Each structure stands twice: as C-alpha cells, then as structure tokens.
Queue: 2 jobs
Job 1
Amino acid sequence: MHPCAFVLNRDNHTGSTEHRGARNMKEPDSGSAMRNLLWIALGAVLMGSPAWAQQPVEKPSQNQAAADSPQALQLQMNDLKRLLMETRSQVAESRSETAALRRELAETRKELAELRSPVSPITVASASPPAQPPTAALSTSPSGPAPESGQTNDRLARLEEDQQLLTDEIADQDQTKVESASKYRVRLSGIVLVNAFENRGTVDNQDFPTWANPPDGTPSNGSVGATLRQTELGLDVFGPTLAGATTSANVEMDFAGGFPSDYNGVTTGIARLRTAVFRMDWPSTSVVAGQDALFFSPLSPTSLASLAVPALSYAGNLWTWTPQIRIERRVKFKNGSAFVVQGGLLDPLTGEFPEDPYFRYPTAGEASKQPAFAGHLSWTHPLLGRTLAIGAGGYYSHQDWTAPPAINSWAFTTDWMFPFASKLELSGEFYRGSAVGGLGGGIGQSVVFIGTPGFPGTVVHSVDSEGGWTQLKFRATERLEFNGAVGDDNPSATDLRLSTAGQAYLIPLLTRNQVAMGNFIFHPRSDLLFSLEYRYLRTSYFPADVYTAGQLNLSIGVLF
C-alpha cells in the first residue's frame, strides 16, 4: 500500500470517529476543514517525492535465509577444509620435487668436479672407455658408510667452490672462448707443473730419473734443482657427425724435448709432441688414428713427479707414443659389465736415437717394410662404486737391423685394476717379450751385437726380457690419496752376455732395474694439486755392478 493511501485512510477513520462522538452538525467546522486541507497538501507532496516512490520495503528472501542457516555454514566450512588439505598436499609435493632437484643438482656438480680433476696427467688409464668422467686418481669416494663431519664439510666446501667456478665460467664465456677457423668447438686444457727435487746418488735424468748411474766422481754425489718442462698443453677439437659417428681430435705437448744450446738452456725446455689423435665414435665402436699410447699396455702408476715419461718406465712399465690406427668394439651387458676388443696397426719403433737431427731415416722396425700388429681384450665390471678391469694383450713386429739375421719382436701383456675395499685399489701390469726395447721393455734394450756393428761377420741377437709393476692406492678423502708402487724389469742375462761390442741403446749393458715409489696427492681445489714423492732406484750393470739412488720430489700443479 502506498504511504499516501495509508495516511488518507488513517485520516478518514479519525474523522469518522470524531463525527460519532460529536453532536450532529449541519454545517462543516472551519478548523476541521483547514486540517483536512493540510493533510491533503502533505499527501500530495509525499506522492511527488521520487525517493519514496522508488524505494520498496526490503524483505529477506528464502535463498538468503537458507544461506544463513547452520547447515549452509557447515558446508562452507567443509569446503574450506578440503581446499586447505589440497593446498597442503600441493606444498608437500612441491617441497619433495625441490629436494629431488637439489639432489640432482648436487650430483651434477659432483660429476662436473670429477671432470675437472686431473685425469690425463695422474690417472691410471683404463683399457676401455671410462664408465664415468675421468677422475680415477682423484675421483669421488665410492658409496659406503656415512662420511664423517670433516668429510661432509669438505664436500660442502667443494660444492660451493664448484658453483662459484661454474658461475665465473658462464660469466666469462665470451672472454675465455678459444676461437677456431672452423665453426666447431675447440677447448684448451693442460697443467702448469712445478717440480722441485733433490737427488741422492747419480741418476740418468735429474728431474725425472728412471735408473741409477755409476757415481759421477763429484764429492756431493747428488743434486738439487727445479723444472717446469713437464708442463703440458692440450687442445681438444669437437668435429661434426660423420656416418653416424661423432668426430673429435686431441693434441698434447710438453717441454721435455731437450735443451737449446743457450745460456742456462737447462731451464728452457724444447716443445715436444706427445700425442695427436683423431677419433670416430659410434655407440659401440670407435676408430682411432694418430700418435697415441700403447693400447695393449693401458695402465700407468699415479705420479705428478713423472709426467714427461710414465712412472716406472724402464722398470716394468711398457710405454711409448707411436703412430697407429686401431678399432675398438664394446659389448655392454645389463649388469653394467662390458667386454672390449681392440686391434690395430702401429709404427714398429725400436727405440733407436735418430741418425740425423733434421732428416728422418728408417728405424730397424720400419726397414722391415711391415707394420707392427697388436691386440687387446679387456673385461670391466662396476665394483664398490668404481671399475674392476682385467685385460690381456699381444704385440708383434719385424725388425731388420744392418746385421743378420732378421729379428722378431713380440710381447704378451696382462693388466688389472681391482678395487677390493671402499678406499683401496690394486692395479698393475706384467709383460713377457723379446726385442721390445722400443716399447720400454728390457730397460730399453732390444738386441745385442756379436761383433762390431757395421762390419762383416757381425751377428745381431734379440734380448728376451720380462717385468711388471703393481700399485696400491688408498683414497683417504675425496681430496687426498696415497699411492705406493714397485716395478721391476729384468732382461735375460744369458742374452746380454753374448754382446762383444755393446749394443744399440745403452753402454754399458743394464741387467736389471728395480724402482719403488710412494707419494701423496692433495687436491685442495678443483684446479690445484700438491704432491710429495720419494723414489728409490736400484740398477744392476753387466757383469755384476749395482748402483742405487733416490729422489725426493715436491710437485705443485695448476690445471686449466
């Protein structure tokens, strides 16, 4: 009902009541008429007001009443609880994913740190492609009992260091990039190595000795010095994909190629080519061509005191860098094991000194007009977080010396790397052969001459020999390892006694060489190495002389 109507009805009702209570009048009362006019005017004003005409009286609807009921409030509370539980579940899942990502990041940083460890200079090589990035000598300790707090702190410090190193490398990528004439990536690497040494006795080489010499007649009978000529430079080239194979190349050099005839020339090492290799790698097959180490004698002891030549060279460790081409075939099994077959052709080097400093003349092996043949079989299996490896190899070449008869050079080799405890590893090699002086066997002696070389009637005779070495490695922490190794090379005394005029390599003849060494290698940072090594040498000369010597060597290396 409109308010005006309500007022009008109210007025009419009142008037009728007063009319019934008053006396009956025939003429209207003037006061009552005036009041009626006022009421009518007020009603007209109210009827003309838009506010009153458009504002209805609000009443609560049924939906609003239902929403305000206790049952509706309970449903809303249940919905809020459900949403809260879903939010908590999502937060927990996010935290779990974050923790997993952090673990993956830590593992990645750990692998990167191992990749920056000094693999090439001090790591025991493997007969097959490494199962993990090359850090064998200074790699992460295998899984085992929980590390102590000191080890945990070391790991955290190393992770922080690696993170900072990666950040710096990313920031300086443009400034440190090695430019190449081709569009393919090139990487520069190497080690700046300082060796300070003290020798007791007389040795064949002052800075990295291999055998003991007779006394030189000086009162001191020893020496002290330092050298940087074992510093190494490496260049890796990553090429295109060819016939489904990834191509790459590597070249390594040092400064142990001799000394110039100059003032203090002993401190000015001449640059020397060590290895230069081209590779084509398929998932299970590789083709390698270039100048490389002996693939049928793949291991070497761990040492920073002897990089120019592998440790225990001429003391049972066969080695040389020779041009070669080889094929590798890998067969992998589900349990992580792998079987590797290698075979190739090599330049049949015999270890002779060059006849001319500028022109190359054929060695006795090259004069035979046929290459050397070699093969190697190995089996690897993951054990205690590292790799168990067992291998066997063979070598054959033909040698044509200036004196008859022709000589057959051959060798059989075995090698092993056995981790038998969480922190201990035993490795080594053994060989048996003949005329293998060019491979470092027989203390560098391949043949002896019966008569005077170059004169009619002179006869050449091959020298049989056998030898080997073994090393025990103890990884105390991720940054510290200890190594102890012994080696022995024993040419046949019967063959050496046939010599009447010396022989092609060494005068006088060496009948046995035994070397023992021990060192520790400390890796405080990813690019910094410290090592202290002692080496003892005992060498026998024909017919019965024995000489000894020792060297204490302090090494500091910076990797780049």
Job 2
Amino acid sequence: MVLTSSESDPAVPPKKTGRRKTSHLKQVPETRELRERIRECCLKAVDQLDRSNLLSKEALETFARDILSQLGESEGYVGWTMVVLSSEFWRDQVAATPFSRRLLLLPHCLKHAQGCPAEYDEFGLDCRTCGACSIADFRSKAEDLGYKVLVAEGSPIVMKIIVGGYVDAIVGVACLNVLEKAIDKVLLAGIPCMAVPLHSSDCRNTSMDEDWLAEMILTEKQQPKVQTRSYLHLIRAAGELFNTEQLERLAPRLRAGPRLEDANGQGTTNIDPVACTEAIAYDFLTRGGKHSRPFITLATYDAMQEGRATLPDGARHCDQFSDAVRRTAMSIETFHKASLVHDDIEDDDLYRYGAETLHRQHGTPTAINVGDYLIGLGYRLVSRDAEHLGHQVAAEILDVLSNAHMRLSEGQGAELMWRDGRQRLLQPIDVLKIYALKTAPAFEAALLAGLRLASPLDQYKKPIKQFAQHLGIAFQILNDLKDWTGDADNKLTTGTDVLGKRPTLLWALALESLPTDEQKEVLNLFDHGPPTETLVARVSELYREADVFHKAAQLVDKYQQRAENVAQNIEPESFRRLLYYLIDTVLYRGNPTLPETPIIEISANAIPQT
C-alpha cells in the first residue's frame, strides 16, 4: 500500500479546507471480509507513516482516501477507515501503556434494551455481571487485567479522566457519529487510543466485531519502535498548578484562618474578614477552566528546550520545571481569571464554570475587589522570583504582562463605551479592532512569557504579536458563535451577548447585510426590545436571514489561515509545531456545515497594530 499524501513535513499540516457535511462519509463496510481487507491495508499503511509526531485529522483523511481509492472502494467508508487507521497508528503506544493505566470505554447501546438491570450513576452505566449482553464479559476481562472501565456514551468525564492523570491510553467502542466528534480531541491531545466502530448508530441492541475488541484489550505491553510526541503531559502540568495542594505550595496564602471550602455552607460568615478576599480568590482559582493560557506558557518554554516534555516520558521533564517557571505560568491564569470576574460584572453574566458568577454569589463590590486581588497576585507570582529568573528576565516578563493588561482593558473599555452609548451602528471592522485588543493580548502574553523564560525575545516579538492577533480574533468570533449554541464549560444560556447589549461581529454583519427596514428593526429591538425570549428568538431569525453565522464562520477560517502563515516561518521546529497545535485546539469547532455565502474580504491592514 503506497500513500500519496503531500504532507511531507508532519510539523506543517496541510492547508485547511472548507468545512462540509460529513454524514455521507460515515458508512460501515457491510461485510466482515471487506472490513478485514481495509484493516489490513491500514496496518500496512501505518508502517510508512512518521509516528514521531501527532497525526492531523486532515492527513488521516487523506491517507484513508488513498487506501479506499487503491482498493476501489466507496468514499463513504472514509470515516470508518480513519478510525481503523488511527487505531493502528496508536497501537504501539497503547501496547507500551501498562494495563493499569488504560481505560476501557464501552457504549451503553451494547446492552440489551429489554430487561437490563443496570442503572446510571455519575460515571455512566453501573453494569452488573448478569450475562445478558457482552458488556459484562468485556468488563470482567479488562478489570481482571487491571483496566479502569467506563460504560458511557461520549461522556465529558473521559477527557477529565485523561487530563486528570488517571489513565494514559484508551481502548474504546463507539458509533461513527461519536467517534467523529471524539477523534479531533484525541488526536490533538495525543492520547494513545484504539477504537472499534459499532456496526450501526442505533442507540440500542447494536453490534461490533467483538474479536477485534478482545484483541485490543489483550494487547501486551511492549516498548514502541517509535515514540509519538504528545502535549498530554503539559496539559496535565498546567491543570495541576491549580490543584489545591499545588496552589498552596507555589503561592502560599498570606492570611491564616478557615478556608472558604471549609465554611460548611455558611458562605464567608465564619471567615476572618481580612482573609475573606484571599479565600474567595483562591477558591475561584481552583474552580475550573481549561487552563489553556498557563499551558501555552509551559509548552512554549518547553518548545524552546527541544520539546522534551512532549515525549512519552514527558511527565519526568515537566517535574523538572522550576517553581519560578510554574509561577510565571500561573500568573497568566490569575490575570485571565481576574478579567473573567470583571467581565462578568460588566456584562452581568449569570454563570461561570457552571456555577453562579462571583458577583451573584458575593455581591458586586466584593467581586470587584477579588478581581483586583487576582491582578496583584499575578504580578507578585513573577516579581517574587526575580532573583531566580534574573532581574532583567523578570522585568521583561512583567512588561509583557502589564502591556497585555493595558491593551485588554482598552479593548474592554471600547466595548463598554459602545454598549452604554447611544450610537448603535457598527461596522464589522470596528468589532475586529475591539477583538484585536480584547482577546489577542492574552495569547501574546502567554507565548512571550514562555519564550522569555527560555531565551531573549528580539526575533519573536513581531511574529508572535501577529500570530496572537489573528488567533485572538478568530477565537473571539468563535466565542460569538458559541453564545448561540451554549457552552457547558462556561455560560449555560444562549443569546447572552444580545441581552447584554455587547458589540459582536454577528451584530455588525447583520446591520451590514439586512435591508434598511430590518436594520431599523434590529436597532429597535436592541434598545426597546420585547421580553427576553421574544427578543432572542427574533434576533436569531434576523441573524439567519442575514446569514451571519456562516459569514462569521468563514472569517474564522480566514484568520486561522493568517495565523498559519505566520507559524510556518517560525523556528525552531518544536515551537512551530506548538503554534500549529494551538491553532487547532484554540479554534476547535467540530464539523459545522459548509457555508454557502461568498467569503467576506476584510483587509488585515485595517486591523490596528495593537
């Protein structure tokens, strides 16, 4: 089997293509004979791949299409072939993982719908050994070997288990619909994973090639021929910074007394008033979030050290990071958390991390004060290590942080001035200027801080500023789109940008595209709108009429391309690889349908150099 992919350099992914519908690509080969033929070709094809670096989804699809073309089979099997090819790609890495560090993930739809005695708990189906279906058989075999087993369906708990460090590899079963949603995150995070696709997407009494799963479960431990790089250890290291124990060690509290988590449901009433601000701030730091900014700082620092933490034994290299490096990464998150507290007040948001926002819990004055405390803590986390880092290095990192802080405030201020003013007309370019100030500085600061921990900044300042600007704008546009679909990690309602009267690209595109009468209706709804549900429903109708969701998605693609153009010229290779990884993860958006409208042309020169 000869692969013809043009991806000669795994560190430089191919250009992104337009998003499109994929339902026609998710057929399962009808016969066992055909499935075996394709699987055998996948096994041979993997021997030709460079397994030292992660395989992109685009490359995976290209290879799958090559295999099917040479077999003369339908492109409808592309999705199925991608899963099998990915499994073979990771086989050696799964084999190198002890049974006790593997997770077996089984779908609830394998159970027999009639008479199943199992019930669901917080982790999925609490399967019993009743002999009515194959779930119990596989569970028993896996647990005897030392596996952890989870019976669920696309549960977010899986990623938490992985990132939390409980397991290092997955053997799973799922339908192609679920696998398509999961494959992006599995590939991006670099999680060794093997999967057996179900024969159908029915939600009950389905089937699979059971001997394939048995073979995967029994894959013996052995050292891989090639070690695949992964950011998993760095993702874990960033999250661990804000575990209570690590946080207390790296940034010891200055005030003694009861912790907020020990208040026994009494709020802050039994905490020393002087220690109260610190207690709320530390509790907020440990609450949640993806910790993407401290990850960026740690990963950038590591990339300038030859990317040793991305190797399979990367946990050992992460353990060797100095506390000064860790505290610098933490500072990026404290500034981010402070901005969230203040943003939530300014927008009167209801939820953050699935819970009530701080100003709703403790009152606006206290929340403002907590945000200010987090800003002070961020600067202190760097300044206290000036001796260890070197005074010049510490001063440059503090300058990076303060510059980002000021520009972010300017962007937020511009948004507030528009929101609270009387002039509601807005051009798309005006919104993009706000986004360039409001969002990009955080990415820039995280990257530059990590770089300065390892080397001088001279050659990186300009390209990283450009990269962060393009990435930040694209990220903010995606955030606008997510406001209409909900976000389980953050806001629990939709249309909050409209209700909060925030300037968004969607709003500006609607004003630009709608006829005059409907423009006036939009403006009237904004200032003198009907009750909440009616307002959101009508704005949604007008947005769809103006096709703003598709237009915004296309602008995400344009700014992603610009970020990729900057990244492709960055050295060293380990840092370039990280920048491409950030583009794919920060701008992850699943599989939206292909927009049918022309791409909007907005000149990059129109965006100010912030």
